[in-house]
Fold this sequence. Notes:
The protein is 53% helix and 12% strand. With 351 residues, the protein is of the alpha/beta class. The strands form three sheets. Strands 1-5-4-2-3 form a five-stranded parallel beta sheet. The chain has a five-stranded parallel beta sheet with strand order 7-8-6-11-12, sandwiched between helices. Strands 9-10 form a two-stranded antiparallel sheet. It has 16 helices and twelve strands. It is globular and about 70 Å long. It starts with 5 loop residues before the first strand and ends with a helix.
Amino acid sequence: MKHPALASVAQLGDYDAIIDVRTPAEFAEDHVPGAINCPVLSNEERVTVGTLYKQVSPFEAKKVGAALISINIARHLQERFRDMPKEWRPLIYCWRGGQRSGAMQIIFRQIGWRADKLDGGYKAFRQHVMEQIDALAPRFAYRVVCGATGSGKTRILQALARQGAQVLDLETLAAHKGSVLGVLPGEPQPAQKGFETALWQALAGFDSSRPVFVEAESRKIGRLHLPDALLEAVRGGECLEVAASLPARVEFLLRDYDYFLQDPEWLVRRLDNLKELQGKETVARWQAMAREGGWSQLVQELLDLHYDPHYRRSQGQNYQGRRRHDPFVSDDLSDAGIEALAASMLAAAGA
């Protein structure tokens, strides 16, 4: 029988607040959705205590750690929780549901709040997330939006969402456009664990009686990996192929990657990553085009020589799902054109 002061992951929704007492660095990597970070040890303090534990003794480490934890809990009580009523019910967790969360729970319960701990802590939550991704991913009928680079696939997904479809927008969750030039300026990717938690949240919110629209992706989006169960399920979905004309794709990419036009040197540095595939001479020519503002020619060559051959290889190998519909042909990837493509896909998919 579970201890009455412990809660399972299934009970997360039963509490007025979820308090993560781990360090800010641990919290930034991943955390229970909706949790607030009230660290009982700072990043630096945890290193100090850990070093004492290893180099001196566990006893000395616990003395120093207890003093620091007491100071930090007192500060949180004064700054964040002093106005909470007696009926307030918080759930507290740390890495494994041990001493850090236990210290705050004891003090909160002495005050009179019914403070519980998450049984197994963040580690139990993390295990739940991965198990749920494996279980949920195969339950849905995926409609996979395929098409060469510059076909507006992510924008089409966003239009589908506006039109009421269920959409799993992997590139938005990953903060990356999915190619070697897909890094978003000023927007770092989440940690792998945080990305997987976001995937779980999205999957858990879907209705399995309705299709889920998703973009055809490779195993990696930037530096993040798609879970195997999800990748396998998506690759077995029904493909909806966008066949946009080359001029429309070039025009779209110039709008969608307009930040490259604002900072050509940033693009020049990114192009260095293509030297091994395309050769130094070709990449040097592309870098010169960027510096000189030859954007249309640069984008067209990147599509012709790099992206389109890669697309033909990868799609043939990885996305061989049913194609019940003819390609969705378009020479208009303006906002209106993308909305029209989304409406056509939605009607074709019977969603």
